Amino acid sequence: MFVMNFEENKERFVDRGKHLNELADEFLIICPRCSKQAKVLLNGNIEFNPANHLFKPRKLACKNCAFTEIWQKRTVYTGGNVDWYFRQPLWLEIPCCGTMLWAYNLTHLEMLEDYVSAKLRERTKKGRSSFLSKLPQWLKSAKNRDEILRAIGKLKEKLNGKS
Hints:
With 163 residues, the chain is of the alpha+beta class. The protein has helices spanning 106-117, 137-140, 145-159, and strands at residues 2-4, 12-15, 26-30, 37-42, 58-61, 68-71, 92-96, 99-103, 120-123.
């Protein structure tokens, strides 16, 4: 969970220890058939259970071409700029600061935006092991803040169909 005080104009971010697997309910990907935006979601109405959440069945679904595929395996490839189940490239990816900026979904992208835009970043005890604590230095650096926020803005426009 993250806390943002908007009255302070995004001056402060408190890292409360969110892990990447808590963001794995949805991946926005490039459809392997039509190259438009598709999603990898939990297949069915499944409640979050951290003990076995990663291995619940997933569904790749594209609204554009109606392509679907079901994942029910026992191997998950976590991390990186592909979804963890079908290994498809992410929809939210853009060149930035000489490398690639990527996010799994809107929640992930907004967390990165809140973290990067904050001038003061605090970490709770749980935050010491969060995914934000493991971000590469170029994403943490204040000198890259403006370029990163511009790139995040372009990714949000892509989500809204403006690019």
